[in-house]
Specification:
This protein has 420 residues and is α/β, with parallel strands linked by helices. 39% of the residues lie in helices and 14% in strands. A hairpin with a 6-residue loop joins strand 8 and strand 9. The chain is globular and about 70 Å long.
Amino acid sequence: MITWKKLPQTEQQLRIEKALKENVDFTHDISLGYPGSRLDGEVFRNDVPFLKDAPLLQTYVSNPNHIGCHTFGASESAFSGTQEMEREVLKIIAVDIFKAETNGYDGYIAPGGTEANIQAIWMYRNHFINDCEAKLDEIAIIASEDTHYSIPKAANLLMLDWHAVPVDFETRAIDKAQLDNIVASAKANGKKFFIAVSNMGTTMFGSIDNPVDYITVLEKHQLTYKLHIDAAYGGFVYPFTNSASAISFQNPKISSITIDAHKMLQAPYGTGIFICRKGLIENVLTKEAEYVEGMDLTLCGSRSGTNAVAVWMILFTYGAFGWCEKVRILQMRTDWLCNALDALNIRYFRDPFMNIVTIHARYIPKEMEKKYDLVPQKHDKTNQWYKIVIMNHVEVDHLSTFIADLKSTRYAEKRAATEV
């Protein structure tokens, strides 16, 4: 790892205090032109003594605005200190984790993975229109049926057709024959440009798509395409558990990646991350944002710099080795659950490198769904799956209690079947 180190809390606090001093200080500086300020002092007091030892809360109260994209051109100089911290975060994720070339990427910390996915599709749609003279009805999105709902949302917003590729019920793997048929049919109907979304950890199953499936079929049909990786869930898991993973910017066909920090990284909700190769993000420049210093290349516009500082603190609290250790502990707990389910002959899906276990619904009584806050694939009678996500708060004791309940249910079912 080049940038990603472990820093003691004292060094972290000094770094954040330095960044805040480089930002505009709405309390002491004469700042007449900004349509913003520190948080309202009547509600969020900045004179309470505990703020001195809480650098993230100091940042929250100072209220930095990270409007724009700080890897591309100029940015609002009033918040240069915390913007530099955002760049440090993006460098760790792009270069250290996903193997991008130094200075070969752009990106920003978005208000969630949904926006980051929409940002990617918006960017590629405009790229095809600007650089390939594509017509809107010649562009299509293709992704698996397990893909996050942000993809059909993007299709709706951007007026694009979305083609969902069926997956195998048990393995959740893309049906390659169906993929080929769908692409051939779309091509025959006038589609020439494709935005392919490949998952690194689907929301319901934690399943990993093989991006080569999309590459192979799209190139077989001699179609122009861009490939986006939705790693909103798996981005802080899979690269650390599967050292042989080839899903990174080392693959020249992969052009962008979405990662959520508010999932595995346990950052505050509303913290997504978008990374793309250089030469793409300028396709979503809003030229009309003339009052913004630099260029607004994001969907959201204004966004809180506090989220960037929160991610920075988490990354530098653990360092690369500490993070690997944390993820491996969760893997061990997931292994324990899977072994216990195997002993009960209960069918489930789990990618071996992920910490999501999705169980066939027929094994889960309704009362257990409520007791353990299990998440169904569908909130109606057609539901076929329940998922368990082994996060940091889920300990083996909790899993053991769940298995004991499940075991007693299984025995009760067997007795009832025997009596009948």
